[in-house]
Every structure is written in C-alpha cells, then in structure tokens.
Amino acid sequence: MSANHVMINDIIEDQSARMSNLRKYYPFFCLMDTAFSQYKEGRYQRLDMGYLTLASLRFFINENNFNERDISFEQYEEFIIHLLRRDYDFKETSDEEHELALYIFDKLNNSGKAFEFTFYDPELKQNKTARVKYIESRISEGEVRYYITSEGIEFYLDTKEMKDESRISVQQLLLGKLIKAKNFKGGVEVVKRINSEVSKLSLKKQEVLHILSIDVFAGARALEEYMDTAAKWFKEEQKLFTKNKKLIEQAIKTAETGKGGEDSKSLMGSFDDIELLDTELKKTIKKHSDLIGETVALQGAADKIIGRAKLRRLKSVFDFRDTMLKIKGINEPDIFGHILAPYFLPKLEKSFSLKQIDNLLTYRQDLSDKAEKVIKEEADIDFKYEDELVDMRIATNFSLMFCELLKRVSKKKEISLRELNGIYEIKFGNEIFKNGDYYSFIAHLAGKEIYDMKKILEKQDTFLEGIVVEKMTDAEKREFSDICFTVNYEPDEVINPIKDKTNTEITGLTFHLA
Question: CA-CA distance, 255 to 498, in Å (whole number)?
Fold first, then answer.
C-alpha cells in the first residue's frame, strides 16, 4: 500500500516538471504538421518542414554563437534559398523564392508569437499553459535582428551532438544562454554534462597512451584522431569557460550589491543556485585545465615512444656477404680490416673465479645474539615539518601585507599598486620583491573584485581570506571591521618591482575604499 502511495505522489508531483521538459519538443512537431499542401495549391508539398526547421536552427546556432552576431531576415533568406536549390533542385523565379522563404520563416517564428500548449497540473488541480519559442527578435541599430533561444539550442542538442564542433563548446553556449535567462538550476545540469564530457576526454587520453604502449602504429593513429577531435578545441573551450565564469560573477555581484533593481531581487531568490553553479563550474574548469596539461604530457610521451620505434625499425642488419662482394668490386680489401677490427678487441666480460667457491664454503657466520640498545627519546611536540613551516611563513607574510593594505586604503581612500609597492619597500625592505610570497599574494588578491571585511570576518570564501583572518589579532579585527574596498585592473599599466628583470612584470591595480 505504501509503495502504491509513493508511486501516486511521484506521478502528481513530477507532472509539471515533466511537461516543462517536454515543451521544447512541442514546436518541432507543430511545424512538422505545417503541410505545404495548403500553400500555393500544393506546389511545394515535397518540401520537408522538419528538415528545414533543423537546418534553420543549426544556421542560427552557427551565426549567433560561433560567429557571435544576430541575423537579419535577408541573411536567413539567402541561406534557406541556397539550401532549397542545393537539396531540392529548386528552380523558381526570385519573387517566388522570396515569398516561400518568407512563408517558411513566418512558420518557424510562429508569426512572432510563442508556441503554446495546455496541460493539466494534478498538484494544483488546474490547467497550465506552457510557452516556448525557438527564435526571438530584438531591435539592433534600427533593424530587426533574430537569434536562437536557449530552448532552441537545447532541443537541437537533444537530437544529436554537432559533428564539426566541440561538444564542450556547444554545451557552454547553452550554459551562457541559461545564465542570461537566469535559469541557474538548468545551468547546473549543463555543467554536469560538460564535466562528463571532460571525463570522457580524460579516459580517451588514457586509452591513447595504452594503445601506444602496445602498438605504436595504432597508437599514432589514435593520437592523431584525439588531437584532431579534442585537443584542437581546447583554446576555444577555455575562452568560453572564462566568458561564462564572468557571467556568473556578474550575477553574484548584482545579487550582493542590490544595484540591479528587480534583477537583484530575482537573483537574491536564486542565490543558492548561483553559488552552486559557480562551485560546479570552478571544479570543471580545474578538471579541464588538468586535462590540457595531461594532453601536453601525452604528446611528449608519444613523441618519445614513436621516436624509439623509428630508431628500432631503421637499425640496419649488417650483411657480411653483400659487403664482401662490394669490396671485391672496388678492389680494396683493406676496408674489410675496419669491419673486422671490433671483433679482435680484448674480451671485456667478467667471469666468476672458482677460487671464490672455497671462500664461500669456509666462511663462518657469527651466530651469536647481540643485544640491541634501544634509546628512548621523548617526542618533540613543537616539531614542525618543512611544509608546515612554509605554510606558517606564507600566512604571516600574507597577513602583514594585507593589513598594511587595509591601513593605507582606510587613510588615502584610493591607492595604486605602484604606491603600495613603495610602502612595502619602506616597511619590509627591497628584499620583499625577491620573495615569491609577494607575487603569490598579489595573484590571490586579484582573484576577487571586492573585499568587505565585515563579511570576511564572518565567513571566509577564499584561501587568502582564511589565512589572513586566522592571523589577525582581536585589535586588528576591530580596527578593520568596517573597511570595504574594491580591486580594479589597470591593463595599460605594467609594473616591474625589480628593475632589469622582465619576468617580474605585473599588471597595475588600483584599490578604492567602497
């Protein structure tokens, strides 16, 4: 009875979510039912609206997301007419072509309205209406431009992955659409799919290395295929990761500052989902970066394996008979002496002397037991391992530099990194710029755009915040608790703390008291 009760509850509670997931397929089948039999008295009945719909969606994905531009109707008309001529041997006048392209686009766009269908929600005990659009429009530079929606991309991806594009890149395009549409729960699912694709590539890399260890020729082919189908997209994938990470950071900033009006209120309601999405995406980015590093190592290992195999195959076998015939032909027997000389060298192999056998037989082993002196030493509870000492040093240095920054920002309201370096040099000496902790501190500091000490003292989100708060005294916590400052990049300014060393150049930063 209880099992039956659970089943009924699942049916009722999941109905709305299931219908919401199914809605992205509804427009396609509506368009499939759009017969050309009623258009121009059935002259174009042979055209398949399903094929034209999928081709159009692929065109919009390519232009909107890969080429990053919205499409005018004239551009779409050029594409669809070329498709009709190529695939259907379409031969009509230009006016008829234009009219047919307009008819197809009007059906695909549903005359600018959303496709709607009604379903019953047993949980609310009422009918609900689901709305979905594949193509949307907006005014840009005084012209109507069209672009594909996230539902359109998701539907197209569900039919089949794109053959000539990176699966990770395409999923990230969908992720960007979902973030802009504030569908952060859907974004988490997409990130999980991206993570799955990264895991597949990692396994494929391991398979390539395994094949190389068994069969060099098959391994070389597998390596080439891996590089052509996966590794060539790494740069583009990293750009999209950066783009989506910035979108999430912007959403978090808008939600935290509350400066976005209604957007801030809606984002605050989804703040937990945004943070979960941010965490999942960071994990995937780390995993993807590791994969890139492993792929570089794979290429190096493969080059060594293939190089050794080439040397083994190129190593020739010396043929005495053939060489003797050639020497006879040129009538220079002295050459043969150079060939035979290595075989008359002294024998270098070592052998075991028979006299040693007597020594082995007459060897007397000392079988007497000897007591081992055990010295008990008390454990040094203050002993620190080397890595613990390094951690303590980093924590101390980070805390000193951060507290100094807080003091200067609170006094001057605004300070540049160049000015801060001058203060550091006066206080800690010029040696600070030869210490790697300084550059590590600046890199960690630039990882966030805003530092609110009141929030940081309550909850530390980053490694830097954690060790700084741990090292701060109670007096310092009280002194700096009301400080809030922002970190701004100055990309045109390059700072070189150590003169005559270009490898110490860093981008300029400015710190403003908020």
Answer: 40
Asked if 504 and 433 count as a contact pair (C-beta separation under 8 A), the reply is yes
CA angle 160, 243, 69 (to 5 degrees): 65
Q: How far is CA 273 from the centre of its chain?
A: 20
Q: What is the per-residue pLDDT across 154-195, written as a single tens digit (0 to 9) for each?
A: 787 777 654 445 667 667 776 777 777 777 777 777 777 777
- With beta carbons less than 8 A apart as the criterion, state whether 139 and 62 touch: no
pTM for this prediction: 0.40
**Crossing angle of the two packed helices 271-314 and 216-229, in degrees rounded to 10:** 150
Helix (H/G/I), strand (E/B), else coil: 375: coil
Q: Give the pLDDT confidence of 246-294 residue by residue, as tens digits.
A: 777 777 777 666 655 555 566 666 667 777 777 887 887 887 788 777 7
- Domain assignments of the chain as residue spans, ordered by start: 1-160, 169-312, 386-513
How far is it, in rounded angstroms, from Cα 284 to Cα 171?
A: 13
**CATH number of the structural domain 169-312:** 1.20.58
| CA dist., res. 96 & res. 106, Å (int) | 15
Token pair belonging to 309: 């195999």
Query: In the structure encoding, which two tokens stand for residue 66, read together?
Result: 């890969």
Average pLDDT over residues 425-441: 84
